[in-house]
## 1
Amino acid sequence: MQKDYWIIAYYIFTPIEDPLKEVQRQQKFLENKDIKCRIYIAHNGINAQISGCKTDAQIYLEWMKKDARFKEISFKIDFYDEHVFPKACVKFRKQLVALDEEVDLELTGTHVSPKEWKEMLENRDESVLLIDVRNQYEWELGHFVGAELPCLKNFRDFSPYAKKLKNHYDPNQTKVMMYCTGGIRCELYSALLKKEGFSEIYQLDGGVINYGKQESTAHWRGKLFVFDDRLSVCIDEKVDEVISHCSHCKTSSDTYYNCANMDCNELFLCCLTCAEKFKGCCSDTCMSAGRVRLYQAVTRPKPFRRYSSKENGLN
């Protein structure tokens, strides 16, 4: 498999005086380049995921580094055989991570390198709380051994979770280790925990993506959920372990589907046999719903995207 495409993830918190102007600047630069992406720009920074042919991807990285505002960006790069986004999408966002509340980034936790993180895991005792701060559908696919796995459906759920956490753990006696996919959520969530009184917080620098590149799968089980067409990846391509299960029959599966019921569209794990049996639906109820997309058998389905009813094969 020829891996001619770079998959790039990065974020940076930095003041952007005119984010709409930056949106236009990015869009202009991407014109006529073999780059597809999801780039969100706010007053306080950028959160981006990009796929591009090697040449154009390198040109983009060099262009970003020339801007004084972005010279401190740490780019996380993977290699793949095709694009993992359908188009180039650059948008203004009021929030880089949807929390719906102001966060003081001066309260961010202490960054620890993957090597330090591994050592901390190996020396962890009962006074250390290890938290996976991703959504449930993410950690079901894979997580660090011994992590607390909160049942969160979206980013906004973390704030009430943080408030309740001090009812179970003494903020003055508990050291917190937290991790996410690429690091950006920990920047905000660590600040939320400090706001609730937890003073000693450590966050994995660069997230699980960075950890896999440097420490492989030490203390990690399963795969990593990613927000692109791949959905599920190994954090080290040499180690392919599946710990997740089909939501229907509970057999081993690391394949996600969007429910074919358009009024549900739930993301769920499913084996190929059950996907065919339930016609791409997450339940019997959804199978008999009024707006169900035509099921097409594929080994690795991509995330559902809204097209016209005719293109969807709508029943």
## 2
Amino acid sequence: MTILHLDSGLFVDQSVSRKLSKDIVAQLNRDDSHQVVYRDLVTNPIAHLDAAALSPDEPIAAELIAELKQADIIVIGAPMYNFTIPSQLKAWLDRVLKAGVTFEYTEQGPRGLLQGKTVYLASGRGGVYSEGEAASMDFQESYLKTALAFIGITDVHVIRAEGVAMGDEPRQQALNAAEQAIAEI
């Protein structure tokens, strides 16, 4: 099996989503039987979308799509910034959501072409957006689930640490809950 591990937390040494994604990969590969392909979207960024990037033969899109197609499991370290995902992760999505390659348009509407994959989202959030009034501001996890489903990936598991900027005690509680969820994978 192949695990594609993506990180997009800007604060490389302090990122909650990076810590969680690393721990998820370690849990999934605890017997070292999987091949792990790692891509750091911050330290090795993909250019933002422009007209040239939409070319059918753009080399980076082909490389990213090949990595995605090869993967059985995808682990995405995705922090919430300003209610959504980092632009570095959006640039990756802009390359792998490709008509005729990862999805197709049919008479019944769009159809994803990448079924049979499992995704673990390592979600880090400074506040609490999974419930209450702030839930309407979650364009991070909801966007990722929608984009992945569009290409056929619907087996998505969220490991979330939220409220990590709300003080030491809420941060530790969030990290403990996330680590417990990882241990149960």
